[in-house]
């Protein structure tokens, strides 16, 4: 099913992220109502760090998972990509038909902020402490 067919059948809005060389050249062909397009580059190369597994779409996803809206995520990814590239040039592009206003209101799965909720045991009563003899597994990885 093509993007236009999907939107016609569902009435849903769509954000299309394209992270490939020369992806900005596709934007004019893909612009439509209720569709935002984020391109990792214009009419140039798209770079990816294979060793660190970092690139524009990865930076964008990271920003979105931190609770940023799509516009903030785009800015975050653009800045991180620029830092990664140093002297190389890559110019990400964005089009939502509203100068970024729609994407400022759009969040991944709603407007929320994630946080680190790692739990830590501060004290443990002696009755709850286990010893190695309490554990049936005594392999090399048991502490």
From TrEMBL:
The protein's name in its UniProt record: Uncharacterized protein
Domain of life: Bacteria
Organism the protein comes from: Candidatus Thiomargarita nelsonii
